[in-house]
Amino acid sequence: MKSMHRVCLSGVLLALVVAFGLTGCSELKTDLPAPSTGELQVHPDGWTTPASANFHGMEIRSQGWDMKRCQTCHGSRYDGGIAQTSCLTCHTNAAGPENCSTCHGTVNPAPPRDLSRNTARTARAVGAHQLHLLGGAISRNAPCTECHAVPSSVSSPGHIDAAGVVTPADILFARSYLPQPTPAPSYDPQTLKCSNTYCHGNFRNGNNFAPVWNDVSGTQAACGTCHGDVTKPTLAERALPKTTAQGGTHPVYDFATTPCSRCHEEVVDASMKIINTNKHINGKISIGTGEFEF
Ligand code: HEC
Ligand code: HEC
Ligand code: HEC
Ligand code: HEC
Ligand code: HEC
Ligand code: HEC
């Protein structure tokens, strides 16, 4: 498809085009038609073709994701401006191009897709996002704020750190769960491991497990990883945290006669299924119908 756009320009737009062209489009000088025609190619060929090297998205990222330049002609709300050409015809979500899913995300603003268009969970920026945000199998879902400072708009301070830099993202654990474990949780951008998080077992009788963000083996959320012992034969033994017999403080009792649900009745059933995802990994120990802080 040929995407050479031509337009009749007013004097003020012409001035802006020349200014923009000098920084944004090296083809412009040679493409300039005779001034008397008043016609000019504002954007290069391929500007609306995602596969093209000249695609407008690629240009925006190469300029540090700055869209203020676009607003000078396309309007502060991207709805036309002096260019009389709206971004909103294609960017139909709320806030148009500034929508939180324009540059990263699909089902929600978190990857996939990431800033580099990756969708595989093995990609570091995709990782276990959706397992935390939508997984919900053994606990409630974690919001973005649990791991990031969430910007209220694209231009919020701290959001886009540096021109052209896409990874690693800033990880800032909110630690909103009641127990505030020490050492504090951290993320290692070299090994992609989260360490010392309360959720993965940094609590009294837990294992302080360090999961790898982009591991896809499916073994990192099994019973026994965060608390207990994954090598044990029965589910109950696997999940049982360190007891007094192992130097911990969990009561020792008779497995044969007593299921976990005898004491943790609102969290597990007799077959060890998590029955209330709001009470497992919520910062409190559920015993009987009560909840206790660590
Ligand atoms: C003709 C349709 C169309 C118009 C008009 C349009 N865009 Fe886009 N834009 C797209 C498509 C399609 C994509 C996504 C391409 C992809 O995901 O590979 C995109 C992607 C983007 C991205 C994401 C860049 C990235 O690499 O992640 C930004 C930012 C953007 N557009 C800004 C704008 C702005 C600002 C305007 C108006 C000045 C605008 N767009 C007008 C079709 C359009
Ligand atoms: C100097 C003014 C000017 C600036 C700055 C400018 N544009 Fe445009 N843009 C226009 C004009 C005029 C048109 C309509 C003529 C055309 O399509 O070439 C247009 C057309 C477009 C189109 C095609 C729209 C369609 O429906 O086919 C897209 C996409 C676009 N601009 C995106 C951008 C983006 C993204 C930026 C910022 C990186 C930007 N523009 C900066 C003036 C400008
Ligand atoms: C124009 C593209 C673009 C848009 C639109 C955008 N982001 Fe981002 N976002 C980025 C880039 C680039 C990064 C990586 C920044 C870095 O750390 O250098 C990022 C990173 C993030 C992060 C990870 C934490 C961080 O700061 O590194 C969160 C969370 C985030 N964005 C949320 C949002 C929300 C919420 C919105 C909507 C209000 C939004 N983004 C809109 C480009 C965008
Ligand atoms: C459980 C913790 C966690 C939660 C919850 C979480 N993130 Fe992330 N996020 C990460 C990690 C870890 C990375 C990867 C950092 C790296 O590249 O090493 C990341 C990276 C990102 C990136 C960078 C993408 C790129 O291409 O570099 C964005 C954007 C982002 N997250 C947005 C979000 C948004 C939006 C939400 C909520 C909808 C969210 N995240 C929820 C942990 C989390
Ligand atoms: C006889 C009652 C009883 C039974 C049965 C029981 N627990 Fe507990 N559990 C407790 C008490 C009391 C605590 C708080 C004690 C402490 O933290 O020192 C607790 C705490 C926990 C904790 C929180 C972390 C900790 O240890 O401090 C986990 C995890 C846990 N139990 C798992 C299990 C699992 C899994 C089973 C079944 C294999 C089980 N419990 C069976 C009484 C019981
Ligand atoms: C991702 C880490 C993680 C995994 C995996 C995990 N747990 Fe837990 N579990 C915790 C944390 C953290 C607590 C501490 C109490 C709380 O916050 O609910 C806990 C507490 C418990 C308790 C005590 C009752 C309570 O207060 O919640 C039981 C019983 C329990 N887990 C059973 C299981 C079983 C059964 C499995 C396997 C299906 C399992 N857990 C897998 C993190 C985990």
Strand order of the largest sheet: 1-2
Unreliable stretches covering 5 or more consecutive residues: 1-38
- Overall shape: elongated
- What portion of residues is helical? 10-25%
Distance between the termini: 64 Å
Number of strands: 6
List the bound ligands: heme C
Class by alpha and beta content? little secondary structure
Strand proportion, as a percent range, falls in 5-15%
Mean pLDDT: 85
Largest sheet: 2 strands, antiparallel
Task: Give the number of helices.
Answer: 6
Q: Provide the gyration radius in Å.
A: 27 Å
Element string (H = helix, E = strand):
EHHEHHHEEHEE
Topology:
Elements: E1 7-8, H1 11-24, H2 28-31, E2 39-40, H3 56-62, H4 68-74, H5 129-135, E3 186-188, E4 193-195, H6 235-239, E5 284-287, E6 290-293
The structure holds heme C (6 copies).
Essential attributes:
294 residues, single chain, two-stranded antiparallel sheet, binds heme C, little secondary structure
Written account of the structure:
With 294 residues, the chain is low in regular secondary structure. It has a domain of 92 residues. Helix content is 15%, strand content 6%. The N terminus is likely disordered. The protein binds heme C (6 copies). The site of one heme C has 20 residues, from helix 1, helix 3 and helix 4. One heme C binds next to helix 6 and strand 5.
